[in-house]
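> @MW can you paste both from yesterday?
MW: sure, first one:
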Amino acid sequence: DRRIEAGKPAGTVVRPSGSGLNLKPHFIECTKSHLILHTGGKQTKVPNGKFPESKELLALLDRVAKQEKERVIFLLRPEGVGTYNAAARIARERQCRYGKIPVPGEGPLDLSMFD
């Protein structure tokens, strides 16, 4: 479930917008030190420098590359630009379509609008 639990601080709500309204998104959060794959109701962390060896990351990118109506959406935290650049390079190499959304702050993400 992608909703914030009761009693926990409110997070940043990520809203659908633009030309991606008819696409199935797959979210990858970019922080200073790692990627967080938000897939199947769970979160998988991939440390910087380990992207080319991550079976989970590569499988996601390859799966999305094969599906015309799917996209990886990189969620950029303020300190995560370098992480995004490295991950986007691998996505391009694997011919995976992607986009990016800047995410202000460091709190938890609320992706419930995409359920």
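MW: second:
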Amino acid sequence: MGRKKYQELSRWVERAQQEDEEAFRYLYDYTYKNITYLVYNFCVNKEDVEDIVQEVYLNIFSSLQQLKDPQTFIKWSNQIAYRCCIRSLRQSRDEVLLGDKEEWGYEGWADNEENPLLSEILREEKSRLLMECMNKLPERQKITLFMRVYSELKYKEIAQILETSEDSVKKNL
């Protein structure tokens, strides 16, 4: 995300810190898809996704006053989402699965667009194989990979969210 977008978003954060309901709605709408996707990738029981997302937003908006630098809102909200997911995982002790990218609007996995049926079969098989491979990774590597590839976060941002060094992030990738 560019500096200009961070600055624009920080104005909305400042308004939300003043309890502006329109600003709350804007921040929610702006971050909902990313937060939901992050949570979705942590949950084994997909029925829990909305509950965890709700918990994330309750945490975000109840502690928004504590955010000192509004330009760090995205990193900060991802960190809250990550912690809520980890807490949920520890409670359920379920296996972490990576969700299906296509379900959340990621396209372009097909190799043969001339044959739609073949394309769909290939897309499903690639998705299945990717999930199988991802499930073999340790939890820390899965989340690092997710944040880098799917959320397109920088090494520094991932390191801050995971409370580790940039070198550790690179090593996990």
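> thanks! The helical segments are 3-17, 21-42, 49-62, 73-92, 116-135, 139-150, 155-162, 166-172.
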